[in-house]
Structure formats: structure tokens, C-alpha cells
């Protein structure tokens, strides 16, 4: 008997729930990426919170939720659908790791395309608090931002940072899956741990670290291109960054990115587990090597 397919919206719903807790870190990451300063994450966050108030750390939350509702729904949903289709066509009970990674890469690339418009609005709303008042976009919420971008700059503005965003999305999906699967397999099979939430957390910590490091350069380039209302090309952004800040600018915001991605990954898995219980679906296959995002 074939296993029932999980709802397409499951991963996106879990990610939307998780981002409500991690948005201040996400916001700080974007602000550090677009600012050309040497401030640390904590200094940046505390300085802006002292100036604008603690609630300001959640400014742009509507854009985060909209982004997760498009990007994460596509990433998790497409990956789950592709994996289920391959299992059905091949007659296998489990997918090899290479197949799982291929599904994740394809899902990540498509999700990067789908989620890029909302990413443009997210970056701008998060970065506004780090700018001088005259340079802010001042979008009231994510939907207003989408309309403003369309009317002020045209549909082409939604493609800003598309190439690095797609590259980042592919790297994110592949690095998270490969690292998570390998870490969980080692912990369950070699270290003798149970397939429980503690194991999921440890595996997610490894996945978050690898994914943050591999995705950092594409993430920085994407954020700077999307934050610009001009016509800065990818090559111009790279040249400017290397000239003014040196090669280390490609890792700018790594700490807040890691601090955001890791708890976000853990929370997403926890929420996915609860949502799957509600829909009477099993969170992960018994075989740790075949677990799917």
C-alpha cells in the first residue's frame, strides 16, 4: 500500500510559524549585509533596538511570512512531490541519497525563482531601519511593498538578485539535506542514538552550519542587489565589495545568518512534526538515510 502524500503546504506552514520567532535575527542579517560597517551582530541589533524600540526588531515580519509562504512552500512541497513520484515510479521503498539531493537541488532552484519577488520586498523592509530616513522605502506591509515595487519600478524589479538567489536556494536545499541526512544517519546507526527530537536537533545544528557557510556569498550578493533601487549588476556589486571591503565581505552577516538559520531549521522540523501528526502522517521514514525535508 502506497504511503499517503503529505500536503503541499506543510513545509511552508511550518516555516511561517518558525520565522515568527527568528525574524529579528533575520532582519539583523539583512541589515549587516547591506551596511558597509564593522559592527557586530549584537551591536547592530542593540543599537537599532535602542534607537527605534524593541518592537522594531519585528519590522518587516509580514514580508518574512509572505516569503516563507511562497519560497518555503515551494521548496518543501516540490521536494516532497518529486521524492514521492520517484518512489512510486521506481518501486523503491527508500530513495538513495544522491536522488534525494537531486530532488532538493531542483526544488531549491524552482523555489528561488518563485520566491524572488517576495525576497526583494523582504530585504528592503528589513534594511530600512539601518538607513537614513530619506533613503528608506517605507513599505507599510509586504503587500503594499509588492504593489509599490510594481508601480514604481516595473515587473523587472522583481528579478533583482535572481541569479544569486537561485544559486543560494539550490545550495541551501542541497547542503541542508545532505548534511542533515548524513548527520542523522551517523547518530542513529553509528552513535546508537534514538531517532527522536534530540537527534533531529543535533542533525539540524550541523545542517545549519554547513548551509550558512555555503550560502553566505550568494546571500550577501543577493541582498545588496535587491536592496538597490538602481541598476547595479552582479559584477558591479562584486567589484565594489572587493574594492571597499575586501574578500571578507562575502561572509558579512555570517553570525546572524547562522543564529537565524539554525534555530529556524530546528523550529521548522519541530513544527513539521506536529503538523504531520495532525494530518496523521509520519514525520520521517524509519530509515534515517532516507529522511526528507
From TrEMBL:
Subcellular compartments: Mitochondrion inner membrane
Any GO BP annotation: transmembrane transport
Chief localization: mitochondrion
Membrane topology qualifier: Multi-pass membrane protein
InterPro entries: MCP (IPR002067), MCP_dom_sf (IPR023395), MCP_transmembrane (IPR018108), Mito_Metabolite_Transporter (IPR050391)
Keyword entries, A-Z: Membrane, Mitochondrion, Mitochondrion inner membrane, Repeat, Transmembrane, Transmembrane helix, Transport
Protein family per UniProt: Belongs to the mitochondrial carrier (TC 2.A.29) family.
Protein name according to UniProt: Mitochondrial dicarboxylate transporter
High-level lineage: Eukaryota, Fungi, Dikarya, Ascomycota, Pezizomycotina
